[in-house]
Amino acid sequence: MTLTRRHLNRATLERQLLLRRAPLSTAEALTHLAGLQAQEAQSWYVGLWSRLAAYDPSETSRLLGEASIVRVGLMRNTIHLVTADDARWLRPLLDPVIERSTMGVFRRGVTGVDRDELVTAARAILAERPMQFAELGRALETHFPGRDPAALGYVARAWLPLAQLPPRGQWGRKGRALHMPLDDWLRNAPALVPDNVRAPERLMLRYLTAFGPATVADCRQWSGLTKLGEVVERMRPQLVTFRDEQGRELFDLPGAPRPDPDTPAPVRFLYDFDNLLLSHDDRSRVVAVDYTAQGFGYDSPEQPRSLLVDGFVAATWKLTGDRLTIRPFRRLTASEREEVEAESAALLAFLAPGRAHDLVIDKPSG
User: Fold this and answer.
1) Greatest CA separation for the chain
2) CA nearest to 303, candidates 327, 274, 329
3) CA-to-CA dists, residue 51 to 207, 213, 261, 351, angstroms
């Protein structure tokens, strides 16, 4: 069976809780979604608000403070918000991804440094107090004189799993990006030991639950892991297969939802680094625009915060002070504009309740 772009769009939105807000807790949602990318300290709260019914950010803050959920470097060597249970098996599985990415930048700075010695020194330093990477690097330099402190700090993070601690990341609070060993932060957690036999299959099942139907290349893009083709071949009897309009083989779970392509899709706000935009090799199931033509790209420090209309990215948005500005890529119909205005009002009430704001919808940029 061939799945059209709209088939894939609606299936992915359903998995991502973006066809309707789900009556789930923060921990339940993070488990279902296999985490959220949480590169920025706070913007990902919009991702939870867009996905969950009656969402209360104070619950998320409480869970962060209790270490029931945690912000830690995972997929693609980027900070993700996951449950403590998922952090325990995902972080060891993704060690090769994190080490490969880190060494691509810092290998020369640690050539000849003994891994065990660096990890032991980092643990001892962080046992005294949590630190930022720059502080950790300077402290490690006293153990490894003449070495680049930046390289020491970041490589320590690759070789020793570190959690980024609250209050950074808690709703309405600020804090420095302080880190301590993940197993210490999770307190009585089991040892972070990978299950080399079952963990890759577990990862693929979780990926398809949250992002399927998908190709092997899609999961590789999301996770950063290689050799996933071998994993899928072992799992093939457990999966169902389709083709996309380009003839690529798609894998999925037999009982996973694949809604009718004409299923209505509501207007939804996505945050910068939203997983929906970063977790497929072919993003055309949700993105049909060239972000670089809109001023975003490798030379731009700003990441697009996107708006879904009829399930596809149709605009970017930006909140500056008391003004929410929406830049459509195309002309919105009267009903679409009305829905955008209603969802914008709800977003502003969430981000800054009780404050007056201006909503500006620019003329289409395309």
Assistant:
1) 66
2) 274
3) 17, 20, 20, 15
- Mapped to the 3 state alphabet, what secondary structure does 152-194 carry? HHHHHHHHCCEEECCCCCCCCCCCCCCEEEHHHHCCCCCCCCC
pLDDT of residue 353: 87
In tens, the pLDDT along 181-192 reads: 999 999 855 556
Residue type, 365: S
Q: Are the beta carbons of 72 and 163 closer than 8 angstroms? A: yes
Q: Which residue has the higher pLDDT, 210 or 288?
A: 210
User: Residue 313 in contact with residue 80, Cβ under 8 Å?
Assistant: no
Question: 227 near 182, Cβ under 8 Å?
Answer: no
pLDDT grade for 366, boundaries at 50, 70 and 90: low
pLDDT one-digit tens code per residue, 86-127: 999 999 999 999 999 999 999 999 999 999 999 999 999 999
Task: Please choose, from the candidates 173, 176, 135, the residue with its C-alpha nearest in 3D space to the C-alpha of residue 157.
Answer: 135
Tokens 């008391």, residue located: 322
Question: What residues does each domain of the chain span?
Answer: 287-361
The whole-model pTM stands at 0.93
Q: Tens digits of per-residue pLDDT, 183-220? A: 999 985 555 655 555 799 999 999 999 999 999 999 99
Contact by Cβ (8 Å): 281, 269: no
Beta bridge partners of 179: 131, 164
Q: Does pLDDT of 333 surpass 80?
A: yes
